[in-house]
């Protein structure tokens, strides 16, 4: 047990999928894994461990935003020995070429700041995905007839953004989408020699104002879970 995770040692797999929403963790575990058991419910941040094609997998909610994700990922890596951590989540599309429901594989994540900002002082660290996971996820998406966008995303600290000028600069520099967690995941993975990737579905679009209807979110979410599982065990 840790401060925020109630699982016993050995109840968390080396491969962890991280949706922001704990109920998505429940849905994904019950839909895609076998022999599923609940391993965490501290603060309602549900985590489940089961198997996929015989491989142990944990699906743990991370909450919204980098401070929340940072707590779970620190404990998963340092206390439970997680080695491969894949965020599965939604993002806002930022480029005209990116459509609702498209999958984005985040090669890098730009930020104003992460919870790790303090240790870098004047350095702007460049958080990036693990290449083996990125490559395997791109292959998995292609095999499902999905054409993923692979490139940079923006990990913002705010959903209700009061700085449209920042988004403009992101768009201008080719950033594909905006979410709120990947940069800290990549930074922690780098620090502790783990593999990390963020697989994202475009749920809304900042330029067109479109949003994915709730009944279609589950289906798109399922594609991400399968891509993440394929990549983890490629
Ligand atoms: N902003 C930040 N995070 C998000 C968004 C957004 O528009 N959509 C999904 N996650």
| Order of strands in the sheet with most strands | 5-8-7-6-9
Could you name the CATH topology?
Rossmann fold
Summarize the amount of helix as a percent range: 25-40%
Indicate the overall shape: globular
Please write the CATH class name. Answer: Alpha Beta
CATH architecture: 3-Layer(aba) Sandwich
Can you write the helix and strand succession as a string? Answer: EHEEEHEEHHEHEHEH
Radius of gyration: 16 Å
Structural class call reads alpha/beta
**Biggest sheet details:** 5 strands, mixed, barrel
* Arithmetic mean pLDDT: 96
Q: Which ligands does the model contain, each kind named once?
A: hypoxanthine
Strand content: 25-35%
Which ranges are low-confidence, i.e. pLDDT below 50, for 5 or more consecutive residues?
none
DSSP summary, beta strand count: 9
> CATH superfamily, called what?
Nucleoside phosphorylase domain
> How far apart, in Å, are the first and last alpha carbons?
30 Å
In short:
By secondary structure, the chain is of the alpha/beta class. Helices cover 34% and strands 26% of the residues. The chain is built from seven helices and nine strands, in the order E-H-E-E-E-H-E-E-H-H-E-H-E-H-E-H.
Describe this structure in words.
The protein has 234 residues and is an alpha/beta fold. The chain has a single domain (15-232), classed as Rossmann fold (3-Layer(aba) Sandwich). Helix content is 34%, strand content 26%. It is built from 7 helices and 9 strands, in the order E-H-E-E-E-H-E-E-H-H-E-H-E-H-E-H. It has helices at 22-32, 66-78, 117-120, 131-143, 164-172, 182-191, 214-232; strands spanning 15-18, 34-40, 47-52, 55-60, 84-93, 103-110, 149-155, 177-179, 195-205. It has a 5-stranded mixed beta barrel with strand order 5-8-7-6-9. Helix 2 (66-78) runs parallel beside helix 6. It is globular, with a radius of gyration of 16 Å. The protein binds hypoxanthine. Hypoxanthine binds at residues 90-92, 156, 159, 178-180, 203-204.
């Amino acid at each position: 047990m840790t401060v925020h995770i109630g699982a016993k040692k050995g109840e968390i797999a080396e491969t962890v999928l991280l949706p922001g929403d704990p109920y998505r963790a429940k849905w994904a575990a019950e839909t895609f894994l076998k022999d599923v058991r609940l391993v965490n419910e501290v603060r309602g941040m549900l985590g489940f461990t089961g198997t996929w094609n015989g491989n142990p997998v944990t699906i743990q909610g991370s909450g919204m935003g980098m401070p929340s994700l940072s707590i779970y990922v620190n404990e998963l890596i340092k206390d439970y020995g997680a080695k491969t951590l894949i965020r599965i989540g939604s993002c806002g599309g930022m480029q005209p070429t990116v459509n609702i429901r498209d999958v984005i594989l985040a090669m890098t994540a730009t930020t104003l700041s992460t919870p790790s900002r303090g240790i870098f002082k004047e350095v702007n660290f460049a958080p990036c995905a693990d290449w083996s996971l990125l490559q395997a996820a791109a292959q998995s998406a292609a095999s499902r007839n999905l054409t993923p966008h692979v490139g940079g995303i923006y990990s913002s600290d705010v959903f209700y953004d009061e700085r449209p000028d920042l988004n403009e600069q992101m768009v201008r520099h080719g950033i594909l989408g905006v979410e709120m967690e990947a940069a800290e995941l990549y930074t922690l993975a780098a620090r502790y020699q783990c593999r990390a990737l963020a697989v994202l579905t475009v749920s809304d679009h900042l330029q067109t104002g479109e949003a994915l209807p709730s009944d279609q979110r589950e289906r798109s979410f399922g594609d991400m879970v399968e891509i993440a599982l394929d990549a983890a065990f490629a």
